[in-house]
Every structure is written in C-alpha cells, then in structure tokens.
Design goal:
426 residues, mainly alpha, two-stranded antiparallel ribbon, 19 helices, 1% strand
C-alpha cells in the first residue's frame, strides 16, 4: 500500500498530536453524552475505543473520527427509558444492521449529492453550535439548561440570563486556549494549535492560582456485555426506532465527512462507492459497540477537525485517538483528570471559530440566490433544529429551482414543437 511507504516521521508526529487533542475532547464529551442517554458514563468512552480501530481500517475518510453524538440522544435515551441498557443495545445493534443495509443498497452515494453551499452552511452552523454549546462553561455560569431542546439559540439564552454569575477564572482559562490557538494558526500553521492552547491554559491556571472544575477521575473498568432478549413486541418497538437512528446517523456521518474534507481544502465529492463503504464501516463498528450497550458512533466534527488542525493526515490519527483515551484511563488518568473543563471548552470553541466559513460570508453577495439561501438557511437551521432537517431545508431550495426550471422549459419545448409542426404543414 502507498500508505506504508509514504508514512513519515512528520506524519507520525501530526497523527500523534491530532489523536491526543481529539482524545482530550472525547473524554468529557463522551462521558456527558452517555450520561444524557441514561447510560453509565464510561460507555461514552467505550464507543470511541471499540469503534475507532474498525472505522480506521474499513472507513474511507482517513481523518474522520467518530464517537457518541447528540443527534442520537433522543433515540437511545428513549430505548433506555423503556428497557434499560439492554434496550439501548437492541436499538443500536439493529440500527447497525440498517447502516450495513444502506451500504449494500448503495444509498450513501445519494447523500453525497448534497450541494456544496448546503455543506458549507452546515459547516458554519456546526461551528456556531460548537461555540454556543460551550458558552456556559467558558463563562463559568452554572445555569439550568434544557438539553432536550435542539434549539441552540434557546439554550444560549438560558445561559446568558445568568451572565451576572460569570466567573473570571473560567473566562481567562478558555480565552487563553482560543488566543494561543489563533496565534499558532496565524504564525505557526503546522503546529498543533489546540494542544498548545491547552498546555498554555494549564500553565496560566497554575501560575495565577485559577481554580475551575476539572475533568475528574476517569473510570477504570471494563463494562460487561449487554444482556437482552428479543420478543415479538420488539418488532414494532425497536425496528422503527432503529431505522430512524440509522438514518440520522448516516446523514450526520456523511455530511460531517464532507465538512472535514472541505476543512482540509478538498472540495471534490467523495466517490459514491466510498460513501457507501463509509456507512458499512460504521455499521460494523457500531455492532461491536452495541455488544457493550455503548452508544452509536458517528462522525464528530470537533474531534475530526481538531485532529486535522493539529497535523493529523492519516487513519492512524483515529487509532491514536482511541489509544490515548485508553491510555488516559489506564495510565494517565491522574494527570488528565486535572485539566480544567474550560480549557477543553476553549478547544471546542476554537475549532468552532475555524468552521465559521469566513470566506463564504465574504462571497455571499456574489453567490446565486439559490446558493445563498441554501447556505444561510442551513446554517441557521442547524442552530434551531436537528441536522437532518437543516440539510433537508437547505436542499429544498435546489429542488424548487429544478422544478421551476423544468416548468419554464416546458412551454418553450411545446412552442418549438408547434413551430416545427406548422413549418412541416407548409
């Protein structure tokens, strides 16, 4: 393989630093996602550890890093509520089968046809969401937030209502990460900017005695296999939920893959066969995670883009990401546990800033109306509803334009036929 011969020390260092920063983001995020679903928090980390080697081996996008995602929370939390962790295992494993079926039926290639303007709008919306989702942590505000709502603007308002309780130490720690990251990206573009930002923020916190909530003790335990049994009632209860979960996961996965490629400067579409294979790879990987009742893995923009920003270029960044998570639990938990949570929030916000598509905003007046509407509505819809609906709304403008063009062409075609008929009669 070309990968074997072209792999260099430079790429190894980039993959190591990219995997390390992706793992740092994954630690608190994975724990919180599993907790939101009603599962033991450690299962959020099991998702990353168990699926990364499979997706790295079988997946087509080398720097797409997966993990438990908020888009899957409603489906899995409902299954946990009805049948406990065993119910989550059933829904996730059935959804994995559906993803493999999507691969065999070659449905992934159709999702890849999403227009470029919609993809950039999705990227911009995800960037804004990453910033707003960390607003409470960056301000040190402990507000009661309705996480069941997909409306990120509403959640941000719930935080800003308590802005008077802002903690300066949290603001300083998060700001150091963002500032150092932006300076590194500006003057040392090949440096792992987010990783340097975390190191700088930890040093500032120690130097000035800034105290904030830390990552905390990591669980050191191997989860047992999921215990469940199938009943005739599961056909009506599990299968529809599993299909919905598979559809949402597939759309999120392939759109995130497009965003990652766009972020890397590669604007060509993934081959149809590659898109299909990506779904199959995550279907196989999620089947393994489901054995432990771990949540579904889909592409995570924050981890993937942080890995790229830190120099990750090959599928080894994904493997190192999982290895660092496992190593952090086994060997480095004592040190990782002392990283301030606002520092990791700063990393997520920094990547969000990088995703805001500044160039597209400057080109907006010169874009066609359809492209501009697709970009703007997708970006806004990502913030107020789920990602699948946001993409559907963005694509709807292209469908309307296509139908409008066909309606305009039809009278012209009929007029041409009439002229030909009249000419023939003469």
């Amino acid at each position: 393989m070309n990968f074997r011969f072209r792999y260099s020390w430079r790429r190894l260092i980039g993959d190591l630093s990219g995997g390390a920063i992706a793992a740092l983001i994954a630690l608190p995020y994975g724990l919180s996602m599993a907790s939101m679903m009603g599962l033991p928090p450690v299962l959020g980390l099991v998702t990353s550890i168990s699926t990364a080697p499979v997706t790295a081996l079988l997946g087509r996008n080398p720097v797409l890093i997966g993990g438990a995602a908020s888009a899957t929370v409603p489906f899995i939390s409902q299954a946990v509520h009805l049948q406990g962790p065993g119910g989550a295992a059933k829904v996730c494993m059935a959804a994995s089968v559906f993803m493999m079926m999507f691969c065999v039926l070659k449905l992934g290639r159709y999702i890849q046809r999403v227009p470029h303007a919609v993809v950039t709008g999705f990227s911009c919306g995800i960037g804004a969401m990453m910033i707003l989702s960390q607003l409470g942590v960056l301000l040190g505000v402990r507000a009661v937030i309705d996480r069941t709502s997909n409306n990120m603007l509403f959640q941000s308002w719930q935080v800003l209502r308590n802005i008077g309780a802002t903690q300066p130490s949290a603001v300083i720690i998060g700001s150091v990460v963002i500032l150092v990251g932006l300076l590194c990206a500006r003057y040392v573009p090949r440096a792992p900017a987010p990783l340097f930002g975390v190191i700088a923020s930890v040093m500032v916190a120690l130097l000035f005695g800034l105290h904030q909530r830390e990552v905390g003790k990591l669980p050191l335990e191997v989860p047992p296999f999921a215990a469940f049994s199938w009943t005739p009632a599961d056909v009506a209860r599990v299968v529809p939920a599993a299909f919905g979960l598979a559809f949402v996961s597939s759309v999120n996965l392939l759109i995130t893959s497009r965003v990652v490629e766009h972020f890397r400067g590669r604007h060509r579409h993934m081959n149809g066969s590659d898109a299909d294979a990506e779904l199959g790879a995550y279907g196989v990987a999620n089947m393994i995670a489901g054995v432990f009742a771990a949540p579904m893995s889909v592409g995570i923009p924050a981890r993937s883009l942080a890995a790229v920003r830190c120099g990750g270029t090959t599928r080894m960044a994904n493997v190192f990401h999982a290895a660092f998570i496992l190593g952090s639990i086994i060997l480095g938990a004592r040190y990782i546990s002392h990283i301030p949570i606002p520092a990791l929030a700063g990393v997520t916000a920094y990547i969000g800033i990088c995703l805001l598509e500044w160039g597209t905003w400057r080109r907006l007046p010169r874009m066609s109306r359809t492209d501009a509407l697709g970009f703007l509505t997708t970006a806004v819809a990502v913030l107020v509803m789920n990602a699948v609906l946001a993409v559907a709304i963005g694509c709807s403008f292209y469908v309307i334009r296509y139908l409008y063009d066909r309606m305009k062409q039809r009278p012209r075609a009929e007029e041409s036929l009439t002229k030909v008929a009249v000419g023939g009669a003469r």
